[in-house]
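User: If only I could read backbone structure tokens as easily as an amino acid sequence. Those tokens are not coordinates but codes from a learned vocabulary of shapes. Could you go through the record with me and say what the backbone is doing? Here is the record:
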Amino acid sequence: MSSPDLQLSADPVRKKRKGKLLPMLLALLVLGGGGGAYWWLNRGLVEAAPKVTPLAERGLIAFEPFMVNLSDGGGTRFLKVSLQLVMENEAAAAKVGGSPVVLSRVRSDILELLTEQTAASLVTPEGKQSLKSAIKARVTDAVEQKQVIDVLFSEFVVQF
């Protein structure tokens, strides 16, 4: 009869161990699964991060100065601007600059865009920034999606 008494006293100890062990295993499983999921999801983000091209490796296309009549009434307002396009890399700049047809198309698109501007809008910082954005968008379309990174003005004169 002593064996049933021993068996009864051992059951509560086992239940206490199981009672502590189960929450610890569940916590370990949740933390391990959460950490694994975090790693798995962020692994794709790290691999997909674009390579940043250093400024020195970007390509540059320089144009002869543009001199245009602005769209203000009377035709007496002019813009003279010298600009360069910063391309995504030197290969893209060489491809655009090496083709007379593409280069003429880009120059024509910029010229058309410049003639649509007014003197009042161009003399504000916001107007110049808007013009840069418009040039980037129009040239990117003209050069078959070669990315234009920036537009640099080296001369910008508005005659009133």
In short: Residues 2-48 form the longest helix (47 residues). The two ends are 115 Å apart (CA to CA). Residues 119 and 158 are 7 Å apart (CA to CA).
